[in-house]
Design a protein that fits this description.
Layout (H helix, E strand, L loop, with lengths): L13 E2 L3 E3 L5 E3 L6 E2 L15 H12 L4 H10 L6 E5 L5 H9 L4 E6 L2 H10 L6 E5 L12 E7 L5 H7 E12 L5 H7 L15 E15 L2 H10 L8 H9 L2 E14 L1
Parallel strand pairs: 4-7, 5-6, 5-8, 6-7, 8-9
Antiparallel strand pairs: 1-2, 2-3, 9-11, 10-11
Helix pairs in contact: 1-7, 2-3
The structure holds S-adenosylmethionine (SAM) and zinc ion.
Length: 267
């Protein structure tokens, strides 16, 4: 566990019978699903921070159906085979995190999310897996040692540049996925009077851009419950008027998927 550090005093966390502890006896018990809660109350700004349980369950249902499989595959291909440690920031219910672990069976893969409901779902699905550990934590105060990660991934989640730079090894890699310009454009056009393009991420301090590309494809959803899951997991779709929502659910949904993938090297 040399990669983990105490969120309270920053000393290394070592394994004991109940879970993890630092030299100052800050104890973090292992939950029955196998994850750790490394989010100190002072970093918790609401009772249930992060995405809501219903949103995470919808995301699980939608992702498990394979709609984002091409993105998972592309990201797996981007990972250096020599990766020994990888951290997925804002891992949600763990679809991509588990995919990274599958692609790197020798590596230690970590997933963190501020939403306990997400980490719980992710850890449950990874119960019998080795080399994959989930924790409840904030991306603004990562419970990881300095220069402990070969790769950090961030898919549709927030982060703080200084924390990214601190935990990644010199020469290590950062991969950021954000919605591309045409992502769910048809749905956005039906909701907003004026559709504003998604902005391209700015290179975080301490990194140089290695490559930037977009991955796009058609999205066709015939099943009503899958359409409902997409609307539930997509925050802008919560603004839908009830009549519009009903009409979307009544028909086959056709739209565009467009992911912007940026890969950076730490200086
Ligand atoms: C759109 S979801 C993406 C989840 C996952 N990466 C995926 O693509 O399936 C964004 C995630 O970021 C998490 N999140 C939001 N703020 C966070 C923070 N400060 N620290 C860690 N996670 C955060 C949310 O709880 C949510 O699970
Ligand atoms: Zn401590």
């Amino acid at each position: 566990m040399k990669d983990l550090r105490c969120p309270l005093c920053h000393h290394p966390l070592l394994q004991n019978v109940q879970g993890l502890a630092c030299i100052n006896r800050h104890q973090f018990d292992r939950a029955k699903e196998g994850y750790f809660n490394l989010l100190p109350v002072q970093n918790k700004h609401s009772r249930e921070p992060g995405d809501a349980k219903e949103q995470l369950q919808a995301r699980r249902q939608f992702l498990q159906a394979g709609f984002f499989h091409p993105l998972k595959k592309r990201l797996q291909e981007l990972l250096p085979a020599t990766t020994a440690t990888l951290l997925d920031i804002g891992c949600g219910e763990g679809y991509f995190t588990a995919g990274f672990s599958d692609a790197l069976p020798q590596a230690q893969v970590y997933g963190i999310d501020i939403a306990k409901a997400g980490v719980r779902l992710a850890a449950k699905a990874a119960k019998d897996k080795t080399g994959l550990l989930y924790s409840v934590a904030s991306s603004f105060a990562l419970p990881f040692a300095d220069e402990s990660m070969d790769v950090v991934t961030r898919i549709y989640a927030p982060s703080k540049d200084t924390e990214l730079c601190r935990v990644i090894k010199p020469g290590g890699k950062l991969v950021i996925v954000t919605p591309g310009e045409n992502h769910l454009l048809s749905l956005r056009t039906r909701i907003y009077e004026e559709v504003r393009p998604h902005s391209r991420p700015i290179t975080p301090e301490g990194f140089v851009l290695d490559e930037h590309h977009c991955l796009s494809g058609d999205l066709r959803i015939k099943e009503r419950d899958m359409c409902a899951a997409l609307l539930e997991m997509t925050p802008f779709a919560w603004r839908l008027a009830p009549e519009l929502r009903a009409s979307i659910l009544a028909n086959e949904l056709r739209d565009t998927l467009d992911f912007a993938i940026s890969s950076y090297n730490k200086k």
